[in-house]
Amino acid sequence: MKITVKKLLTNNKKISLLDKEILLSHVIKKSREFLFANPDFEISFWQKIKFESLLRQRQKNIPIAYLIRHKEFFGLDFFVNKNVLVPRPDTELMVATAIAEINEQGTENKNILLIDVGTGTGCIPIAIRKSVLSANPNFKMETIAIDISKKALCVAKKNAKKHNVEIEFLHGNLLEPIFQLSELRTENTEIIITANLPYITEQQFKQEPSIQKEPKLALVADNEGLALYEELLKQIKQLLLTLDFRLLTMFEIDPTQTDKIKIMIKKYLPEANIEIKKDLAGLDRLVIIT
Ligand SMILES: C[S@@+](CC[C@H](N)C(=O)[O-])C[C@H]1O[C@@H](n2cnc3c(N)ncnc32)[C@H](O)[C@@H]1O
């Protein structure tokens, strides 16, 4: 019997139509638009088997991005696998804010050192570098990306290669690899630290079925989700004591953490200015520290 696009998309009511369309277009290597326009397109037996296997995995809450091995972020396509957090649209706010800041600093005499802490897929520094340098190829911007997961760093390196961007990848805890660098030149430099670190609580993690298959190391932190940001703030304080540079830091947070993070920042960096930006849903999402 003929197996068509229409038939496969109407089977299995447990999976949303959108997910089925994405998986089917991945299997037959055609766009979703092709599916709409060609409901009677014939699918081979092996394609049907592959599609059904993906549906079974999707039913076990495996993120669709892991199944199709990529995810779009800030208009760029990123390779993803089970070792990294799937990039979220919320994080595009940090990227857009960093790009605006870097462009505002101008190209003339200033060096920019971008340090992305907890880089995962590398989506933040790659999107920033790609955007800034495509508009101005002569921009002086060094980029370092750090992660505690070696497997995540492999994914980030693969993405940097794919997008042809130069990033130094370092393995370690938060900014510790920076302290170990024998030479860090910061004269006339603005350092921008971007950090989308794990910030949800154990309880939030347990209550959210959709994130169970993503690495817990990328999602959960102690101390009401703020333990890693606190440790990072301590390290930033130490960095500021040892080096002379202008610093801008950005943290992505959960909207419930605004008051606590403000208190924490004031504890370690009493002189700092703090600005909070909201995401597209109108929720506090980005903390900017200058
Ligand atoms: C929420 S994910 C964010 C990934 C990526 N930046 C993004 O926005 O999609 C947090 C990342 O921080 C890394 N991480 C967790 N603890 C860390 C630590 N102590 N030092 C450095 N990286 C850490 C995880 O491995 C994970 O890749």
TrEMBL record:
Gene3D superfamilies reported for this sequence = DNA helicase RuvA subunit, C-terminal domain, Vaccinia Virus protein VP39
Entry's CDD domains?
AdoMet_MTases
What one GO molecular function would you report for this record? protein methyltransferase activity
Q: Name one Pfam family in it.
A: Methyltransf_31
Can you tell which superkingdom this protein's organism belongs to? Bacteria
UniProt xrefs under InterPro entries: HemK-like, Methyltranfer_dom, N5-glutamine_MTase, PrmC_N, RF_methyltr_PrmC, SAM-dependent_MTases_sf
Q: Which GO terms describe its biological process?
A: methylation
Entry annotated with the keyword rRNA-binding:
no
Residue intervals of the Methyltransferase domain: 109-195
Keywords, alphabetical = Methyltransferase, S-adenosyl-L-methionine, Transferase
Q: Which residues form the Release factor glutamine methyltransferase N-terminal domain?
A: 15-68
Task: Specify the protein name.
Answer: Peptide chain release factor N(5)-glutamine methyltransferase
Native species: Candidatus Magasanikbacteria bacterium CG_4_10_14_0_2_um_filter_33_14
Q: What is the lineage of its organism?
A: Bacteria, Candidatus Magasanikiibacteriota
